[in-house]
Write a structure and sequence with these properties.
By secondary structure, the chain is an all-alpha fold. The longest helix has 34 residues. The protein folds into two domains: 197 residues, no CATH class; 40 residues. It has ten helices and no strands. Keywords: Cell membrane, G-protein coupled receptor, Membrane, Olfaction, Receptor, Sensory transduction, Transducer, Transmembrane, Transmembrane helix. It holds the Pfam family 7tm_4. Possible taste receptor. This is Olfactory receptor 14C36-like. Its main location: membrane.
């Protein structure tokens, strides 16, 4: 409820679904971005073919649809359990590991499904990203020392940092042994995998685009210029109006 620390069961289920959906989608998008980096650096002449608009649209739709299915299955599998322990969720939001601790039934099958899905989806994405960057760095190191090598590294490093933070924090929260009690560390790590990557995505991807940088510079310059004109008009309203009448 708004203004309180309580939440309905339907609201909690919605939170679980959305967290799982966005985590899944974010992970696959990071994997696709690694493939994009690989194509741009290792296969620059074939980049328009490898990362064609049709492929981008299809991969986005496939990611969203598979994310809906993934989140729905885990949400249904979690909320079919009876909850008879304390209803206090030791987390900033409802998530599967915290809810499993509140169930009074056997949650072994749920834990196995989480482990297997995390191993397949997360582990598969991690291996693909590592493999992509092995090819990328082996290609970049063959570049002559200069602007090209620096530009390639500056493009890849932010993506690697987000992948590292996202995977390490989410793996710890979801693959941690159930016997370990939740605490402040879990709450902090949940922020790292749920808030930090989406927050930095515009900075990492959009602001590295030269057209985007140019548009932001023009916008800032226009606002600064219009602000100076406004301050001049406020300071000298009579002189400006006389000058305007004189020229007319």
């Amino acid at each position: 409820l708004l203004g309180t620390s309580s939440i309905s069961k339907a609201g909690c289920a919605a939170q679980v679904f959305l967290v799982l959906f966005f985590v899944f989608v974010e992970l696959l998008f990071l994997t696709i971005m690694a493939h994009d980096r690989f194509a741009a650096i290792c296969r620059p002449l074939h980049y328009p073919v490898i990362m064609s608009p049709r492929l981008c649209v299809h991969s986005t739709l496939a990611t969203v649809l598979s994310g809906i299915i993934y989140a729905a299955l885990h949400t249904i599998n979690t909320f079919r359990l009876p909850f008879c322990h304390s209803h206090a969720v030791q987390q900033l939001f409802c998530d599967v590991p915290s809810l499993l601790k509140l169930s009074c039934s056997d949650t072994f099958s749920n834990q196995i499904s989480i482990f297997v899905s995390a191993l397949v989806v997360g582990g598969g994405s991690f291996i693909y990203i590592i493999k992509s960057y092995i090819h990328i760095f082996s290609t970049v190191l063959r570049f002559p020392v200069g602007v090209d090598r620096k530009k390639a590294f500056s493009t890849c490093v932010p993506h690697i940092l987000v992948v590292s933070v996202f995977l390490s924090s989410s793996f710890y929260v979801y693959l941690r042994p159930p016997a370990m009690s939740a605490g402040v560390k879990d709450m902090v790590l949940s922020v790292f995998y749920s808030v930090i990557p989406p927050l930095f995505n515009p900075i990492i991807y959009s602001l590295r685009n030269e057209h985007m940088k140019g548009a932001i510079r023009k916008l800032m310059a226009r606002r600064l210029y219009s602000g100076n004109i406004l301050r001049i008009k406020e300071a000298f309203p009579i002189q400006l109006s006389h000058s305007h009448a004189f020229h007319n």
